[in-house]
C-alpha cells in the first residue's frame, strides 16, 4: 500500500483515489454554479433550466451523494482486492515514466468510452431500462454541472462504477495514477454537463465530445444520437449515431445547439 504524506499524516493512495474525485466533483461543479449566472455563456437560459427540468435540485444532490457513496464503497473493495505489497509498489514507482502514464490514460479512456457507449445506447434502445432506469438522468433536459452523476443507482453502478473499475484493471494503473485519472475523468464529466460554452475552454478545444455535443443528446431531437461519453466520439461516428450540430448565438444572450440535417446521399 503506497502512502502520501500530507500535513504530517500518512494517507494511502487507495483512500485518495476513492475520495479525491468526489471532492473534485463538488469543487469543480461549484465553479460552474458561479459561471452559470452569466447568461452570455449558457446553452439554455436560466428560465429554461428552472422550468424545463423535471426534478428538483435538492433531489439531484441527494441522488448524486447516494451514487458517490456506492462508488466509494466499491472502490475501497476493488483496491483491497487488487492491492499489492510495498515491494510491488516500490517497483512500480521505480519504473514510472510519462510514456507509461500516457499509455495507461489512453487505454483507460478507450475502455471507459467503449463500455459507456454500448451500455448507454442499450439503455435507450431497451424501453424497460429507459423507462425505469435511464430516464432518471434525462429528467435534466437542461443539464447543469452537479447533475452530471444524477442517475438511477443501478445505472450508476453499471455505467460509471463498473466502467471505472474496468478502465482501472485493463490499463494496469496504480492507485496513485488512479487519483489523477479519475479526477480528470470527473472534471471532464462535469464539464460535459455544465450547460455552458466558455471561450478558451481546453475541453472544447481538444475534445469534440463536450458540453454542446452532450447537450444535443439531452434534447428530444437528439435522444437517439450522441451516446458517446465522456471523452471521444468515435463510436457514434463508427456506428452511425453521430448527430452534427451548429452552435448559434441566442438573441437573448448565450448559445444554443441546433441539429444539422445530413442528406442520406452524403
TrEMBL record:
InterPro entries assigned: Fatty_acid_hydroxylase, Sterol_Desaturase_Related
GO molecular function: iron ion binding; oxidoreductase activity
Domain Fatty acid hydroxylase per the UniProt entry, residue ranges: 105-241
Keywords carried by this UniProt record: Membrane, Transmembrane, Transmembrane helix
Segments passing through the bilayer: 15-35, 101-119
GO aspect biological process, one term: lipid biosynthetic process
Protein name, as recorded: Fatty acid hydroxylase domain-containing protein
Organism: Brassica oleracea (Wild cabbage)
Lineage of the species this protein comes from: Eukaryota, Viridiplantae, Streptophyta, Embryophyta, Tracheophyta
Amino acid at each position: 500500500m503506497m502512502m502520501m504524506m500530507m500535513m504530517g499524516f500518512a494517507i494511502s493512495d487507495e483512500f485518495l483515489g476513492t475520495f479525491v474525485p468526489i471532492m473534485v466533483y463538488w469543487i469543480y461543479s461549484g465553479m460552474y454554479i458561479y459561471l452559470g449566472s452569466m447568461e452570455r455563456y449558457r446553452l439554455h437560459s436560466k428560465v429554461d433550466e428552472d422550468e424545463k427540468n423535471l426534478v428538483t435540485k435538492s433531489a439531484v444532490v441527494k441522488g448524486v451523494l447516494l451514487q458517490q457513496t456506492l462508488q466509494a464503497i466499491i472502490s475501497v473493495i476493488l483496491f483491497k482486492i487488487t492491492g499489492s505489497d510495498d515491494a510491488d509498489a516500490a517497483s512500480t514507482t521505480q519504473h514510472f515514466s510519462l510514456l507509461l502514464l500516457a499509455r495507461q490514460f489512453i487505454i483507460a479512456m478507450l475502455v471507459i468510452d467503449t463500455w459507456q457507449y454500448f451500455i448507454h445506447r442499450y439503455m435507450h434502445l431497451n424501453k424497460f431500462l429507459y423507462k425505469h432506469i435511464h430516464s432518471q438522468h434525462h429528467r435534466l433536459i437542461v443539464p447543469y454541472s452537479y447533475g452530471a452523476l444524477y442517475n438511477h443507482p443501478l445505472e450508476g453502478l453499471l455505467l460509471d462504477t463498473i466502467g471505472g473499475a474496468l478502465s482501472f484493471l485493463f490499463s494496469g494503473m496504480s492507485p496513485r495514477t488512479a487519483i489523477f485519472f479519475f479526477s480528470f475523468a470527473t472534471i471532464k464529466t462535469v464539464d460535459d454537463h455544465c450547460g455552458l460554452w466558455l471561450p478558451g475552454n481546453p475541453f472544447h478545444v481538444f475534445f469534440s465530445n463536450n458540453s454542446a455535443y452532450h447537450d444535443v443528446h439531452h434534447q428530444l431531437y437528439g435522444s437517439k444520437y450522441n451516446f458517446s461519453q465522456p471523452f471521444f466520439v468515435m463510436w457514434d461516428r463508427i456506428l452511425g449515431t453521430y448527430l452534427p450540430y451548429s452552435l448559434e448565438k441566442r438573441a437573448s444572450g448565450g448559445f444554443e445547439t441546433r441539429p444539422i440535417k445530413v442528406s442520406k446521399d452524403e
